Amino acid sequence: MFKEMRPEDVIAPRGEERNIKRNTVVVEIDPENIDYEKLAFCAEVIKKGGLVCFPTETVYGLGANAFDPVAVDAIFEAKGRPHDNPLIVHIDGYGMLDLVAAGREDEMDRLYRLGQKYWPGPLTIIVTKDSAVPDSVSCGLPSVGIRMPESLIARELIRLSGVPIAAPSANLSGRPSPSTAQHVIQDLFGRVDVIISGGDARVGVESTVLDVTGPVPTILRPGAVTLADVESVLGSGDLPDWRIPAAEGEKPKSPGMKYTHYSPDADVTIFDGGTEAVRDRITRETFCLKEGKCGVLTTDGGESFYKEKAKAGTVVLSLGSRDDMLSLTHNLFSRLREFDALGVTAVFAEAVPATGIGNAVMNRLYRAAGGKVISC
Ligand code: TXA
Ligand code: MG
């Protein structure tokens, strides 16, 4: 079936007749042994203005030709994304940089220094954009977020397409980001042309978004590249407290930060404090819940405690080991979706220390909880 398929058979009509319904094709590609015939087909879909979901090391992306405003608009429609939240542009190498970036010398100097250490990888760098980048990508901002992903499938898809690919995370707006192809299929099957199934995301949460246009390089979204990492290269950096929402009427620096994100259907509450106090409090909460099913999100070692002490029937899931922060980011969005799949209605989540990569975990968890944190 795959060999006989032509890109025009899967791409939804453009313009007037365009409809959100699409015939989605799922294309399996082994990240360790890329089938270039299949990937060339996916690249052809991008070239023709279609929507292709692809794996990256952070989360799956929902991509289109960054220079095709009609295709870019279709990204927003497929996700149900508000039109004031700009997209990241993905490049396969430095050869594509000049097409999208037109930063001042100091901006580009920072970009190259960071790129040398962290590209390809989970870091998005915001610089002044080239006028060739359509407004639909930057949502009218004078800047653009650029990332060179580590995932080879992603970079080869961009290379074969011959254009930078604009891509947000491949989830429905407001849902947890997708760290597996299955998550993408759950959210976007029937709304995009192609979903590449290419293995689970290594990092599991979205890239660090770093703005280098101002006097101090500022992290707008914490990720696997930490403030200390940025400071080690640039000598300075700032990570404003992401718990504080922008004041009424004030423009948030990163438009994406004002939206409630990452929400599973279940109601999430975070419990912060010493291990014993948190565990006792969460245990009590499981007995207090009158209606619905509870879930507990803990880390390795916590499962046996809750299985013994918490109310019978409580779903207990571990994020991973606190000694390996990347195991926590890797599992976070999967666990949130698992609670939903298991019919959990209230999730009690243990906080982890918000330092280093812990910032990325707590930032996502905090927003999944709509800011509900109980100190124990
Ligand atoms: O890891 C990732 O970054 C994934 C993969 C697919 O690369 N992409 C991703 O995209 O998470 P998205 O659209 O879900 O999140 C992009 C974030 C949003 O919070 C957006 O507001 C911010 O980056 N952003 C993009 N361009 C910006 C700009 N020019 N200025 C400020 N914030 C920007
Ligand atoms: Mg997103």
Plain-language structure description:
With 376 residues, the chain is α/β, with parallel strands linked by helices. It folds into 2 domains: 2-234, DHBP synthase, CATH 3.90.870.10; 267-375, Threonylcarbamoyl-AMP synthase, C-terminal domain (Rossmann fold, 3-Layer(aba) Sandwich), CATH 3.40.50. Helices cover 33% and strands 17% of the residues. It contains 13 helices and 15 strands. It has helices at 7-10, 36-47, 69-79, 97-100, 105-118, 135-138, 152-161, 181-188, 227-234, 275-288, 302-309, 325-341, 358-368, and strands at residues 25-28, 52-54, 61-65, 88-90, 123-128, 143-147, 165-166, 194-197, 208-211, 218-221, 267-272, 294-298, 315-318, 346-350, 373-375. The protein has a 10-stranded mixed β-sheet, with helices on both faces. Helix 2 crosses helix 7 and helix 12 runs parallel beside helix 13 (358-368). The radius of gyration is 21 Å and the shape is globular. It starts with 6 loop residues before the first helix and ends with a strand. The mean pLDDT is 93. It binds threonylcarbamoyladenylate and magnesium ion (MG). Magnesium ion (MG) binds at residues 168-169, 177.
What's the short version?
The protein is of the alpha/beta class. The chain has helices at 7-10, 36-47, 69-79, 97-100, 105-118, 135-138, 152-161, 181-188, 227-234, 275-288, 302-309, 325-341, 358-368; strands spanning 25-28, 52-54, 61-65, 88-90, 123-128, 143-147, 165-166, 194-197, 208-211, 218-221, 267-272, 294-298, 315-318, 346-350, 373-375.
